[in-house]
Design a protein that fits this description.
The chain is mainly beta. The chain is about 5% helix and about 35% strand. An 8-stranded antiparallel β-sheet has the order 1-3-4-8-15-10-13-12, with no helix packed on it. It has a 6-stranded antiparallel β-sheet with strand order 5-7-16-9-14-11, with no helix packed on it. Strand 12 and strand 13 form a beta hairpin. The radius of gyration is 17 Å and the shape is globular.
Length: about 270
């Protein structure tokens, strides 16, 4: 868990220009989460998943968001499951669980930064030629209230690989993106932009690889929608990690930092597609 600010170990999507209106945020407290008995995400594990019924527009998690520069409780953020987008026979695996986790990151494929959000989805193994995605609404409120808070935030999507994609509305975000990794492509149509992994689908990335990250700036709005999905055949779990800061801060546990140069390698656990 990040408890103090250290120099970034690896410059993952570092800002090169500034945007004066952007508010940099990190998760500083949990209002409610959707999670199972374990928040350590090491691959496919049903213990990560919240037990309940997915209901579009009402199934949500909420977090206290602190200004990354001043450490002031600036906003509350609610993340709501809205619907699923399934094609080619894809379906959500909800046997005994919801097929979803929305939680503050504690150890998500080696990323131990409590300011980060992890969203884990579970599907039945995808047939060839199919795709599966979940649609989420991100909403911002005045702290401790339900009063919408128009805000401009920087959204960093880390470790986009295994044929994963992220789709956003062009009216909600500035386009082109603030920064896009060299392994990421994008397509635009019908008012939407889709960012996706364009390398060998079995090429494994790491959480602090800037080549597999996308950074987009929201417009001055109180809510926006993001679709998260994959087209990789036989995929069962998809993991997405988000930060809301000007640059990512991959912070090791203090004990790991003491390991010196080799400690860095210990944190770079490989993503697994279950």
């Amino acid at each position: 868990m990040k408890t103090l600010k250290l120099t970034t170990l690896l410059a993952c999507v570092t800002a090169t220009v500034s945007h004066a209106a952007i508010t940099t945020l990190e998760i500083g407290g949990v209002i409610n989460e959707l999670k199972g008995s374990s928040t350590t995400v090491v691959g496919g594990d049903p213990s990560n998943l919240w037990v309940g019924t997915l209901v579009g527009g009402t199934t949500s998690a909420a977090f206290q968001m602190f200004n990354d520069d001043t450490n002031v409780h600036t906003a509350d953020m609610r993340v709501t499951y809205m619907s699923a987008t399934l094609s080619g026979g894809a379906s959500i695996n909800s046997t005994g669980t919801s097929g979803l986790m929305i939680a503050r990151t504690t150890d998500s494929q080696g990323l131990m930064d409590g300011g980060t959000l992890s969203i884990l989805s579970r599907y039945n193994p995808l047939p060839n030629g199919s795709s599966a995605a979940m649609n989420f609404k991100f909403e911002f409120f005045q702290p401790g209230t339900t009063t919408p808070l128009p805000i401009e935030v920087r959204v960093t999507n880390l470790d986009l690989d295994f044929d994963q994609f992220v789709r956003v509305s062009n009216t909600s975000f500035n386009t082109p993106p603030f920064q896009i990794g060299t392994n990421i492509s994008s397509t635009t149509g019908s008012g939407l932009t889709r960012y996706f992994d364009n390398v060998n689908p079995f090429s494994v990335s790491t959480v602090n690889n800037p080549d597999n990250a996308v950074v987009i700036d929201s417009n001055l709005i109180s809510n926006f929608d993001i679709t998260l999905g994959t087209t990789l055949p036989q995929t069962e779990y998809t993991l997405f990690m988000f930060e809301f800061r000007a640059e990512t801060e991959i912070i090791p546990e203090p004990s790991a930092a003491l390991l010196g140069g080799l400690g860095m390698l210990a944190l770079l656990r490989r993503r697994r597609s279950a």
